[in-house]
Amino acid sequence: MMASLQVCGIDEAGRGCLAGPVVSAAVIIDKKKIPPGAKDSKRLTEVKRKEFYSDILLNAASYSVGIASNIEIDEMNILNAAMLSMERAFYGLTVKPDIVIIDGPIIPQNLLKFDKLKVIPVIKADERIKIVSCASIIAKVFRDRLMISLDNKYPEYGFKNHKGYATKEHKNNLLKYGFSEIHRKTFKF
Hints:
The protein is an alpha/beta fold. The protein is built from seven helices and five strands; from the N terminus they run ββαβααββαααα. It is globular and about 60 Å long.
């Protein structure tokens, strides 16, 4: 009997934020162990995301999170930083996949150097492919928790409420207090 192929999903969270890192997750999980109802993290409530997050981590053969900081985002732009965070997530896996499905149209360059690795970019994969939805959930919950912890250091910005996204509250606080050290200085709002 032939061994089944190891499939990995990769997605990121925090691309459109004004503060904090971009976070990517890579996950390998048997499709039979994906929680029923798991879908793109943006289409789930915070409570559901947290439930699915725990189930996914419990059942994953391997998962990893990769981060690119706000400084790296400012130095190389958000697209390149997102690709870097995806590569870091991939390299952190303890089980190496045969196939990688990435949300979006672009393949991170360093994933192309593996001869036997098939990398498939899929637009809206986080909505269409369950294993990428799982990566989306991991990345979003991990990043949200990081931003909530940063709220303790920078309470004036309200990160626990908006997680660094460009909400009215966040924009008003930026105008009032200026940039913190975790803000993306190259982003316009």
